[in-house]
Amino acid sequence: MTYTDWLREDRLPHIYCAGCGNGTIINCTLNAVDHMGWKKEDTVFVSGIGCSSRAPGYISTDSLHTTHGRALAFATGIKMANPGLHVVIFTGDGDLAAIGGNHFIHACRRNIDLTVICMNNQIYGMTGGQGSPTTPVGALSTTTPYGSREPTFDLCQLASAAGANFVSRWTSYHVKELTRAIHTGLQIPGFSFIEAAVQCPTNYGRRNKFRQVMDQVEYFKTHAILQQKAERLKAEGKSVPENSIVIGDFIRRDRPAMGVKR
Amino acid sequence: MTKIDFMQGNTACAEGALAAGCRFFGGYPITPSTEVAEHMAAKLPKLGGVFIQMEDEIAGIAAVIGASWTGVRAMTATSGPGFSLMMENLGFAVMTETPCVVVNIQRGGPSTGQPTMSAQGDMLQCRFGSHGDYSIIALSPASVQEMYELTVKAFNLADRFRIPVFLMADEIIGHMRERIEIPDTIPAGERKLLEKDTLPYHAGKDLVPGFPQFGKGYGVHVTGLTHDERGYPCTTSPSVHEELVKRLVAKVESARHEIADFRVTNPGAEIIFITYGSPARTVEQLIHDHPDANIGHLRLRMVWPFCENALGEFPDARVFLVPEQNLGQIAREIERHTSVPVVPLPKLGGALHTPAELKAAMEAWR
Q: Is the N or the C terminus of chain A less surrounded, counting Cβ atoms within 10 Å?
């Protein structure tokens, strides 16, 4: 696979900042899609609003760049009306967990045959760095200038509880694992949710002691802890280190799903 | 053969939609429109269509727009609060030129208002409710028969102009039951597909680009951002934005005389009632009870785009009396187009104007 297989060359260069992690996630996704052997004309990318949601605009399949938070509702219409189409959604923490939270819960509940890739940069990047539902407690943003005081969402726990068939979390450091997880998500009938922690040097990193792009990627590397290890620590009565990013596949099941091509 | 039936307005709307080939309904229950959804829920699965009850009206219209991009005729039905929730995504449908039909069985507002009572308070909201400049088509049925006919028409217009088309009914028309003739055949319409090797947002003389249906290999990018003819975001060029928005408005407004749909009674009259929706029924009763060639009636079946030429059907008009179940929303529009006095006859609360009320209003102009 080369980039010209899936990207619109006439749309490049993209708008992402230098050092942004979104490109890595798009790359992993396109590799996974390519590995599926899907035809371009049968594949649709859908998104809402935000940095992550600009991704479909660079991909040469049919793509729908919708309103803030509503990508899953639009995607539900596409998939239910034509289950023969493969529908993949790019979203972010603000788009999915804040304004789109209700649609997220209900898409998981319906277990509709979609694959959702959430680029979680823990910030509103497009609007210049405001706090989101995943901004860590204490983190600085333009709307949390004294440090965020709001508890955060664990998007994977949310998706698991709401009924998704496949739930997985990785980071922009874990490209092999992330690509495999996305590929698994694309294969599984029903709702697949893959969260990818991404660095945002421009609007998150520089305000939160990640002076260099690689500082935050290094943080992902050193703070990621496999879900199995976290479980083992808990079972042994030990605590999971603070600020850990628990990674791995959390849920893989076969609940009845909607919108699956028969 | 034409089939004679007796049914509720909302059911007739759903039957019209099915006859028009609607095979996707996404919505959320809300009084007094719910019977449309219920009827679609019962019928669509048997026809190979999809009914989906979404988590709210925002998602309802979103699903409809998504479905429409797969080439299917899609609709939703709602009322006041749900209609308000749909506004942002309706703007998205306008900007992306997505055909869809939105039924609003109007109830009393603002806010939760009077869920079971009739109103026509959303006539300006359907025209202007989403942000930015745009134009849409709104039809207003005054009978169960028209709930059927105008729903069919709404789908044809939506496909032709690639816009949301509104069926702006009211609770009285939605819930009344009366005789209906269901025709064997209905006026056909189709969505013109994009010709290959044409830019997806390049419009010809009719100002409506061909439709690049998803799944057909067009590889089209569809965005609510200001876009160029390729469909690519282009948000800082003043000329691209101006040309796009002007075309979105012009494609509807420039066709307004051709697509105008109204009924004229007694064109030689001097005292003219102008109505749409249920107040038309009171005027018809008045003229029935007091036959008088000097009482005219202009009944708008299409309210938006407003066709000002319709006023010219009454060359001797001395006054336009406009009974509406709002505080004069369309009377205000009529005033913009005529030097003849325009008298709003507002009625709020849900009850129909009585013939006596309209007669009294009319007598002042004898």
A: C
CB contact under 8 A, A103 and B55: yes
**Is B62 close to A106, i.e. CB distance below 8 A?**
no
Task: Provide the shortest C-alpha distance from residue B162 to chain A (in Å).
Answer: 16
Chain A residues within an 8 Å CB radius of B215: 41-42, 44, 62, 82, 84-85
Residue B215 · residue A82 · CB < 8 Å? yes
The answer to whether the CB of B101 falls within 8 A of the CB of B167 is yes
Q: What's the pLDDT at B72? A: 98
Residues B122 and B106: beta-carbon distance below 8 Å:
yes
**Chain B contacts of A60, Cβ < 8 Å?**
219
The CATH number given to B263-363 is 3.40.50.920
ipTM: 0.97
Number of cross-chain residue pairs from A and B with Cβ atoms under 8 Å apart:
126
**Distance between CA atoms of B260 and A48, rounded to whole angstroms?**
37
- Whether A261 is in a domain gets the answer no
Looking at the complex, does the CB of residue B220 fall below 8 Å from at least one CB of chain A?
yes
Task: Kindly state whether residue A253 falls inside one of the protein's structural domains.
Answer: no
**What is the CATH architecture assignment of B3-182?**
3-Layer(aba) Sandwich (3.40)
Distance CA(B278)–CA(B120), nearest Å, equals 9
Q: With bands split at pLDDT 50, 70 and 90, how would you rate the model's confidence at A1?
A: confident
Question: CB distance B66–A73 less than 8 Å?
Answer: yes
pLDDT one-digit tens code per residue, B215-272 = 999 999 999 999 999 999 999 999 999 999 999 999 999 999 999 999 999 999 999 9
Q: Average pLDDT over chain B, rounded to whole?
A: 97
Structure-block tokens of residue B216: 């057909």
Is residue B48 within 8 angstroms of chain A, CB to CB? no
Distance from CA of B284 to the nearest CA of A (A): 42
Chain A residues within 8 A of B21 when measuring between CB atoms: none
Nearest CA to A76 out of B189, B89, B245, B212 is that of B89
The DSSP code for B277 is S
Nearest 5°: phi and psi at A220? -60, -45
pLDDT at residue A218 in the model: 98
Q: Quote the number of domains for chain A.
A: 1
Sign of CA dihedral B63, B65, B69, B72: positive
Q: Do B215 and A44 touch (CB under 8 A)?
A: yes
